Amino acid sequence: MPDSESRFSYDEIAEAYAAGVDSAPFNAYYERPATLALLPDVIGAHVLDAGCGSGFYAEQLLLLGARVTAVDGSAEMTRHAEARLAQLGSLDPGGESTGRAAVRAADLTQPLLFLEAATVDGVLSALVLHYLRDWGPTLSEFRRVLKPGGWLVLSTHHPATEAVRYDVSDYFATEMVEDYWSWVGKVRFYRRPLSAITGALTDAGFVIERIVEPRPNDWFRAAEPEAYTRLLKQPEFLIIRARLPA
Length: 246
Ligand SMILES: C[S@@+](CC[C@H](N)C(=O)[O-])C[C@H]1O[C@@H](n2cnc3c(N)ncnc32)[C@H](O)[C@@H]1O
Description:
disordered N terminus, binds S-adenosylmethionine, 25% strand
C-alpha cells in the first residue's frame, strides 16, 4: 500500500473505539495487564501517556499515583480522555500537567513544544507507535522530554505474528498493512521487523530492559477460547521497557 494512504485518523473511529476498547478481550485481558505489569513505580512521577486514546492508561496512572500529561493525535479521542479524567476530578485546564493531569491534542511525529526538556519521568505509549512509519523523531522527542534515567514502556504488534498474518514477501520491510476489527472497522498501520523496533530504540539512546511476549489470562480464555489457544503459541503483541542512561 502506498505511503500516500498512510494518514489513518482515529477521529473516524473514535466513538466505536472508545465504546469498545475497555471490554475488548485483546486489550482488557491481554495487552493491558502485560503492559501495566512492566511499569516501574509511578507514585509521584510525571508520566507522558503518548497516544492516550480514550484515556484508559492515563486513568490507571493517576490511580497509581502519577501525574499525567496525556496526548493524542485525534481530537475526538482526546475528548473521550478528557471526559474520563474529568470524572476523576483531576484534570488541568490545559498545557503541561501542573496538577494531576492534562490532556492535549498533539501529533507524536512533531515536537511536543508544550513540554520542557527533562521534565518527564516516564513515557507510556500503548499500541501507538505502529501508526508511525518512522519512529526516530518521536523517540528523540521522548528522549528530550525525559529526565536522565527516564523510562519508556511501549506495546506494539508482534513482528513475527504480523509477518505470518500478512504473508509478507519481505520480513525486513517496513510497510503499511490493513486490518479489520469487527468492533471498529478497517484500520491501517505499519509493520516492521523486530530489528527495526529494537534498532530505533537503541539509536535514540534507550537501553532495552525487558521484552515481553504476553500470555492471555483466564478472563481472556473465558471470553475467546479459540483465540486463547492460538495466543498461547503465537503472541499478538510485544511489550518493551527501555530506559535512558542516568
Ligand atoms: C490503538 S489506539 C491506543 C490508545 C490507548 N493507548 C489505548 O491503549 O487504549 C492508538 C492511538 O494512537 C493515536 N495515534 C496514532 N497516530 C498518532 C500520532 N501520529 N500522534 C498522536 N497520536 C497518534 C490514535 O489517535 C489512537 O488514539
